[in-house]
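Async update (no meeting this week)

Hi team, since we skipped the sync, here's where things stand on the single-chain job. The sequence we agreed to prioritize is pasted below, unchanged from the tracker. I ran it this morning and attached the output directly underneath so nobody has to dig for it. Comments welcome in thread, and please keep replies under the output.
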Amino acid sequence: MAKGQFKEPVRIQLGRIDRDRLVLGVKDAAAILLREWPAEETPRRTKAMAACLGVIRGTKPPSYARRYFVAACKEAKVLLEL
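Output:
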C-alpha cells in the first residue's frame, strides 16, 4: 500500500447525483477538504484537515485521517457508503 493510502476508499458525492468519487488516500481527502468542501467550516472538518496534516507529516497513520474524514463527510451529508 502506498504511503498515505486508505485501506478502503471512501465513496462520496459532492455535487451532482451522477458524480460519485472514491477518495483513495490522505492527499485526496486533504484536497477535497481544502478546495471542494460543500459545507461551512465546522469542528469536524477542522479535525479532518488536522488529521490529514498529521499523516502528511508522518506523525499519524492513514486510518486516523480516514476516521476523521468519514466523520466530516457524514456531517456534510456527502458520504455514500463505507
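Quick observations from my side:
The beta strands are 5-13, 20-25, 79-81.
The first strand starts at residue 5 and ends at 13.
Reply here if anything looks off.
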